[in-house]
Specification:
Layout (H helix, E strand, L loop, with lengths): L2 H37 L4 H30 L2
Helix pairs in contact: 1-2
Length: about 80
């Protein structure tokens, strides 16, 4: 296996796992927030605000993986 092939395989794995796990996390965050709102509708605004913040942090992980994959691809 030459260097170009190894880099391509590494980038593929980085993107596959680096996007799949944050996507699962965002789904679980949304599910938990909807359950919490269903139990306590009065706290909807606070739950929504916290959910959006946590989703942004989870999405940041996918963005970091994208940046790392692009650095690996172009170096």
């Amino acid at each position: 296996m030459d260097l170009a092939t190894a880099k391509t395989v590494a980038i593929s794995f980085m993107m596959a796992f680096g996007v799949a796990f944050p996507a699962l996390a965002i789904g679980m965050i949304g599910k938990s927030a909807m359950e919490a709102i269903g139990r306590n509708p009065e706290a909807e605004s606070g739950i929504r605000t916290t959910m959006i913040l946590v989703v942004a942090f989870a999405e940041a992980i996918a963005i970091y993986v994208l940046v790392a994959a692009l650095i690996l691809k172009f170096t």
